[in-house]
């Protein structure tokens, strides 16, 4: 890897475009390196993982709306598949529908540094572009490897949330780069597409603050949709604002650290394999990643507390990110409100810990139901929980040493009689270094579990066989799943739109 220094440049300053970060990323994308066997295996795992969470979310309202919008853009001939449907649709709208299905339940993969991300969001738009352009499985693997690599590298070096910019601002460029690899575009076309994709996908992180709405599910699919459109325009000869990150009125100067700030972005050197996906990890539970270890911690502690009504208070000592984003440090009253949206509750570690402590499990639907959130004893326990930042947990969260890096915390439960029960867990059970790491067997089991009652068993078998044979596929529509119309008919009614 090569560390690249990136800072604002005045318009009058001599700054060759080959030195622009977007150009350096484009060179990585255009580098025709082989996909390592272990990277190929993990990409297949994540294709399966995305299908799992899409099956679980396919009947939810935001996913239904996105799917119906895509249905308004059918194609005859070349096009892309929409999860659950037969036929082909415009690539950008297929990416929109499929990306929303993947993100809706907050249940797929993650990469965390000082910034955070869900790099599996790269797969729907890159796959849609691959299907539309008639590419094969090996092309897809190369494109996805690039998408993961660029997003992981940007997340490592450039924190967005510290400046209240939503993390999908790294997704637009990574998807554009991945599609550039997929299509074998030249460096200049990829460079222009990256600039356009970034310019059109920067937004504030209000989408994850206060009362969190369904836009949280749409934000990454919007970024993927914009990246596809950016690639299409640049293939037709159009350009982008430049330098997009370093310009005097660019992203760094006005949206991030300011004109005096310097970022360091690691990127593979020429000829170096793209390994970024190997540093990412998926979720066993449908909740914000910082909640994964905390749910497992609650399950661990459940048997040590005889009567939860005798709890006086619970303090969760954890990292800066967990405390200020999903803890009481956020100062969001909505995180303590039983009437809050599901999207808000999955960003409330207080609610999540209370329910997991009571139930000894976590379920992507039951744990969030209005009835569950309004249970009086749950509300009482929930409101006894606070979070505090512990510098040691923050240090471990930001550590670059895999053996030290941690996303969990310590729970201190004080009972009414003064006794204390406490325990800590650094990483989730499903983490590569956890108690029960996810491998192919666990990904397949997650798919089978979430697809039950949604996808016919024979269609499950067909999809899994195709996914595990991705490298040899010549027809990438085989990676789509069709669902019986009688199942899709159970989706909620939605209002008519414009399209």
Automatic annotation (TrEMBL):
Q: Which reaction does it catalyse?
A: (2S,3S)-2-methylcitrate = 2-methyl-cis-aconitate + H2O
Q: Quick check: keyword Lyase in the entry? A: yes
For the protein in the UniProt heading, the enzyme class is: lyase
- What InterPro entries does the entry give? 2-Methylcitrate_Dehydratase, MmgE/PrpD_sf, MmgE/PrpD_sf_1, MmgE/PrpD_sf_2, MmgE_PrpD, MmgE_PrpD_C, MmgE_PrpD_N
Does this UniProt record's set of keywords contain Manganese?
Answer: no
What range(s) does the MmgE/PrpD N-terminal domain occupy? 19-263
Query: Which SUPFAM superfamilies would you find in this protein's record?
Result: 2-methylcitrate dehydratase PrpD (SSF103378)
| Alphabetical keyword list | Lyase
Give every MmgE/PrpD C-terminal domain span: 285-469
Q: What is its EC number?
A: 4.2.1.79
Q: Name one GO molecular function term.
A: 2-methylcitrate dehydratase activity
Instruction: Please report which protein family the annotation says this sequence is part of.
Output: Belongs to the PrpD family.
Q: How is the subunit organization of this protein annotated in UniProt?
A: Monomer.
Instruction: Please identify the protein, giving its name as recorded.
Output: 2-methylcitrate dehydratase
State the organism named in the record. Answer: Corynebacterium doosanense CAU 212 = DSM 45436
């Amino acid at each position: 890897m090569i560390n690249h220094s990136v800072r604002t440049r005045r318009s009058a300053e001599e700054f060759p475009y080959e030195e622009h970060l977007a150009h350096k990323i484009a060179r990585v994308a255009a580098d025709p390196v082989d996909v390592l066997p272990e990277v190929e295996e993990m990409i297949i795992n994540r294709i399966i993982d995305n299908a799992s969470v899409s099956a679980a979310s396919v009947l939810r309202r935001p996913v239904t709306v996105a799917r119906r919008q895509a249905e308004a853009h059918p194609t005859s001939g070349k096009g892309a598949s929409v999860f659950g449907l037969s036929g082909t649709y415009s690539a950008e709208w297929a990416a929109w529908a499929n990306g929303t299905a993947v993100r809706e339940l907050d249940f797929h993969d993650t990469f965390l540094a000082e910034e955070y991300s869900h790099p599996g969001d790269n797969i729907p738009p890159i796959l849609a572009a691959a299907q539309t352009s008639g590419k094969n499985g090996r092309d897809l693997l190369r494109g996805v490897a690039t998408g993961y690599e660029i997003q992981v590298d940007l997340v490592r070096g450039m924190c967005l949330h510290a400046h209240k910019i939503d993390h999908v601002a790294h997704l637009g460029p990574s998807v554009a780069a991945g599609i550039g690899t997929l299509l074998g575009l030249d460096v200049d076309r990829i460079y222009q597409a990256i600039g356009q994709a970034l310019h059109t996908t920067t937004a504030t992180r209000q989408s994850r603050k206060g009362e969190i709405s369904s836009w949280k599910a749409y934000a990454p699919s919007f970024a993927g949709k914009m990246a596809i459109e950016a690639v299409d325009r640049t293939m037709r000869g159009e350009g982008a604002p430049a330098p997009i990150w370093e310009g005097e009125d660019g992203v760094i100067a006005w949206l991030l650290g300011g004109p005096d700030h310097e970022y360091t972005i690691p990127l593979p050197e020429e000829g170096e394999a793209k390994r970024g996906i190997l540093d990412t990890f998926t979720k066993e539970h449908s909740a914000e990643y910082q909640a994964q270890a905390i749910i497992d911690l609650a399950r661990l502690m459940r048997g040590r507390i005889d009567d939860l009504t005798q709890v006086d208070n619970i303090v969760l000592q954890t990292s800066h990110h967990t405390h200020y984003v999903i803890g009481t440090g956020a100062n969001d009253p909505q995180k303590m409100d039983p009437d809050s949206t599901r999207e808000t509750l999955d960003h409330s570690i207080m609610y999540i810990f209370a329910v997991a402590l009571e139930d000894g499990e976590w379920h992507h639907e039951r744990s969030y139901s209005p009835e569950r959130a309004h249970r009086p004893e749950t509300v009482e326990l929930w409101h006894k929980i606070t979070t505090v930042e512990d510098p040691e947990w923050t240090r471990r969260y930001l550590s670059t040493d895999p053996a030290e890096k941690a996303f969990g915390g310590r729970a201190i439960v004080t009972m009414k009689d003064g006794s204390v029960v406490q325990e800590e867990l650094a990483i989730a059970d499903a983490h590569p270094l956890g108690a029960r790491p996810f491998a192919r067997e666990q990904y397949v089991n997650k798919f089978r579990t979430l697809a039950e009652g949604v996808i016919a068993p024979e269609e499950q078998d067909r999809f899994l066989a195709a996914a595990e044979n991705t490298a040899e596929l010549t027809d990438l529509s085989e990676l789509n799943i069709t669902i019986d119309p009688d199942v899709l008919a159970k989706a909620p009614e939605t209002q008519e739109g414009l399209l």
